[in-house]
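To fix ideas, we reproduce below a protein record of this kind.
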Amino acid sequence: MRFEKHIFICTNQRAADARPCCGETCGLELVKEFKKEIKEAGLAAKIRAQRSGCLDACEYGPSLVVYPEGVFYGGVKQEDVSEIVKEHLINGRVVDRLVIDFSKK
């Protein structure tokens, strides 16, 4: 396996009259921030962050998923990226306050 962890960040864009979506603009900013934080932490050879299409978590967006754990995060803002990198990616502790609880909707 090339990467130990893989982060897929939704950048899906829908028409204005469609259901909510994470949005390309916000998603691409998150991708850029994750890549920066991962590189600064010296983890670029182990962890990959990239844009993805719809993760079907639109109402929780901006959303992302971390594999291989399959942890979905929602309502992610740029200021949350550092916490996710430090806590989840480096220390193996899920950031509970951002985890999507799919059973609630």
The beta strands are 5-10, 47-52, 64-67, 71-73. The chain has one domain: 5-104.
